[in-house]
Amino acid sequence: MALTAASPSYRPSFPAPVAPSISARPWRGRSLLRRRAASSGRHAPASVNNRRYAALQGRPSAVGRRRCDCFDLHRQLVPFLESQAWQESIVARRKVLAGRGEDHSDTLIALQHPPVFTLGSGTADECLHFDEEDPPFGFEAHRVERAGKATYHGPGQLVIYPILNLRHHGKHLDLYLRSLEEVIIRALQSAFSIRASRVDGLTGVWVGDQKVASIGIHVVFPRYITSQGVALNVTTDLSPFEMIVPCGIKGCRMGSIKGILQKDSDGRGIDETSLMDRAYNSVIKEFAEVFKLSLEHSPNWSLQQSSDFK
Q1: Among 4, 154, 186, 254, which is 20 to 30 Å from 230 by CA?
Q2: Where do the BPL/LPL catalytic domain residues begin and end (predicted)?
């Protein structure tokens, strides 16, 4: 297996200073406590996770549509550490605003990453087929403050980072996870007529026996501010996943939108840029619908003075 690290032409659209350290505790969901073999192919619409999502939808929600600032970098490769600093700076500001009762909007960031392995709080040595201090192919590897285990990010993968105040979205972590899954399930159906589903006891989205979307979140208590998010394989090179146990699921088979569509393309070429644009447009549309948000597209992010975070 020969892999070459990408050489991204990255044009920063925002300053990404290192934000102050945030005191928070990651939430470990029940989703990874029970494993169903991905190869079983049993992804029935009436799964436990589906029923749980349907039941939780009935909980009280905020009246009307809350504003959500959307930062669109879905065609750009943003270095992983810069994206983390950006999220931390937003979370820090949102914590202060929430404490004042002035947190009136949410945030959504969409981007791609250069090749990088990210290791969540549950990552153990057996999840990696390489030395953490010496990642293969010249890629980066970073520990990250989120639930879950190891995953891979790279070009052709659409990553969305929602920074939400869950006090305005039910304050229910299981509902939040199921809602993120719902966004991807709806987006795949509406944009590509791909029927996706959940797997009981796990978090993420599958098409048949292929996992196409991974989810890992972090929640800052007691303000209930979220960070981290969802990675959807659109045109991603899936080879690097062979170097890890994806999300700690042994035997997990990863898939991508491009790979699924190629089976029915009769050899026709697929425009990868167009595919990414369609995925992005569908995901943010369904995100707004599922979370009942009004998206406001922001051209860039301007970090306020550090005194505003105190």
Answers
A1: 4
A2: 102-295
